[in-house]
Design a protein that fits this description.
By secondary structure, the chain is of the alpha+beta class. The chain is built from 14 helices and eleven strands. Strand 9 and strand 10 form a beta hairpin. Helix 2 crosses helix 14, helix 8 runs antiparallel to helix 10 and helix 8 packs across helix 11. It starts with a helix and ends with a helix.
C-alpha cells in the first residue's frame, strides 16, 4: 500500500471517530467526560490502600491497653468501589474494623424508644471470669469501660476521638519516614489527604466501625436534634454500604449489556456538583447529599423494568430520575432503601442483611430532618433546572470539553 492511501485511510478513520463522537447524545458525551476509567482509579486505589495499611499498622503499634483493637483489614465502600465515581476529585472511603478487648462482648440495640432511625447503640457486657484472670495477670483492670463507655454503652464519640488521636500520631511518624509523600488529616472525617510528587491529591475517609450480625455500626457522631437528658454520643450510624454493593453486583447480572443505570446517577451527581460550585449555589444542592441522590436512584433501579436501562435510554432515565427527585420532595418522602423495605425480604440472605431490619415498622424518611421551607425552595430550583435542562447540559458539555 502506497503512503498516500495509508495516510488517506488514517484520515478517514479519524473523521469517522470524530463523527461517531458527535452522533452520541449530549448525555453520553457528558458521561464519557466525567467517568473515571477502571485503570485510572485502580492505580490511585492501590496506592491509597498501601498507605492506609501502613497507617493502621502504626496505629496498632501506638495503641495501649484499654484501647479498642484496630484491625488491619479495611473494607472499601462507596462510589469508587461501585464504578459510580465522578471527576475530578479522587477520593476513597474505607471502613476500618475494630473490636473490643476480648473480655468484653457487644450487642447492637436499635429498638429502644430514644434511638433515632438509622442509628443504634452498642451494649457492652463483661465476661467476669475472663476479666478476673486478666486483671490478676496484669495487676490492674485495663480501663476500657471507663475510657470508652458511658454506663453500659460504647461511646461513638470516645472511640472516634481515640481513633483520630492515634491516626494523628501515626501520621506524624510516617511523614518523617516517607520522603516523597505528605500525609495530613483534615478536620472532617477523619479524612486523610495524601500528597505525592508528580501525582494528583488523594482524599481517604477512614471510618472506624464495629461489625454486628453483618451490619456495620460507624463511629460517626450524631448531629441531629435530640431530647434533653439523652446522650447523643452513644449513637452509632447503621451502615448498609456493604449491602448496597452486593445489591448492585446482583443487579449487574440481570441488566442489559452496557446498561445506563450507573451513568444515570453519575450525571445527576455531576449536575449537583456543578451547581454547588456556583458563586451562589442553589439551596437544593447544598441541602441534598449524595446519599439522598443514591437512595433515590436505588429505588428507581429496583422498580424500573430492566429493559429500560439499555444504553440508548440514558437521556430518558436521567430526566426520569430528576423528575422522581422533584416528586419525592413534593411528597416530602424519601424512604431509606434498606430499613423497612419489605420488597427486599426474599433477597435478605444473598444481601447479608438480617430480616428484622426490613420489617415495615422500621421505615425511615430521609427528608424528615429537612425544614419544609427548604424543601419548597428546592422544588422551585429543581423545576427551573428541569425546564432548562437542554440548555444547561449543552453548557456543561462545552465546559467539560474545554477542561478535559
Amino acid at each position: 500500500m502506497s503512503a498516500f492511501w495509508f495516510v488517506l485511510l488514517i484520515g478517514l478513520g479519524l473523521i469517522l471517530i470524530y463523527l461517531f463522537g458527535k452522533l452520541k447524545s449530549i448525555y453520553h458525551q457528558i458521561s464519557d467526560n466525567i467517568d473515571f476509567s477502571s485503570s485510572e482509579l485502580l492505580e490511585h486505589k492501590s496506592f491509597a490502600e498501601v498507605i492506609v495499611k501502613k497507617l493502621l499498622k502504626m496505629m496498632q503499634y501506638l495503641s495501649v491497653r484499654g484501647d479498642p483493637h484496630i484491625s488491619g483489614n479495611i473494607i472499601g465502600i462507596g462510589s469508587a468501589f461501585e464504578n459510580l465515581k465522578i471527576k475530578p476529585q479522587i477520593q476513597f472511603d474505607f471502613i476500618v474494623l475494630f473490636s473490643l478487648p476480648f473480655q468484653y462482648v457487644s450487642k447492637c440495640v436499635i429498638d429502644e424508644d430514644d434511638i433515632p432511625n438509622a442509628y443504634g447503640k452498642i451494649l457492652v457486657s463483661e465476661n467476669w471470669f475472663t476479666n478476673l484472670l486478666i486483671t490478676a495477670w496484669h495487676g490492674r483492670q485495663c480501663g476500657f469501660l471507663g475510657r470508652m463507655c458511658n454506663g453500659n454503652y460504647l461511646s461513638a464519640k470516645a472511640v472516634h476521638e481515640r481513633f483520630r488521636s492515634l491516626a494523628d500520631m501515626a501520621t506524624d511518624i510516617l511523614n518523617d519516614e516517607e520522603e516523597d509523600i505528605n500525609l495530613t488529616f483534615l478536620q472532617q472525617g477523619p479524612t486523610l489527604k495524601i500528597e505525592r510528587r508528580g501525582a494528583p491529591e488523594i482524599l481517604v475517609d477512614l471510618v472506624p466501625a464495629l461489625k454486628d450480625d453483618s451490619i456495620y455500626l460507624l463511629a460517626k457522631i450524631y448531629g441531629g436534634q435530640f431530647e434533653a437528658g439523652h446522650c447523643q454520643d452513644l449513637l452509632w450510624t447503621l451502615s448498609f454500604s456493604v449491602q448496597e454493593k452486593a445489591f448492585l453486583e446482583q443487579k449487574d447480572l440481570t441488566l442489559p449489556k452496557n446498561a445506563c443505570h450507573k451513568r444515570t446517577l453519575q450525571i445527576l451527581k455531576y449536575l449537583k456538583q456543578e451547581e454547588k460550585n456556583l458563586e451562589t449555589p442553589p439551596l437544593w444542592c447544598r441541602t441534598l447529599s449524595s446519599y439522598h441522590l443514591k437512595t433515590l436512584w436505588l429505588h428507581q433501579l429496583q422498580k424500573t423494568p430492566e429493559g429500560q436501562w439499555q444504553e440508548k435510554f440514558l437521556e430518558e432515565r436521567v430526566l426520569q430520575l430528576l423528575d422522581h427527585l422533584i416528586h419525592t420532595l413534593e411528597l416530602q418522602t424519601l424512604h431509606h432503601f434498606f430499613l423497612g423495605n419489605t420488597k427486599l425480604i426474599k433477597q435478605a440472605g444473598s444481601l447479608c442483611i438480617p430480616k428484622h431490619f426490613l420489617r415495615k415498622g422500621l421505615k425511615y424518611n430521609l427528608y424528615d430532618e429537612i425544614d419544609h421551607s427548604i424543601i419548597v425552595q428546592s422544588i422551585q430550583e429543581l423545576r427551573e433546572l428541569q425546564n432548562n435542562i437542554n440548555m444547561y447540559t449543552t453548557y456543561l458539555l462545552s465546559e467539560l470539553e474545554t477542561n478535559y
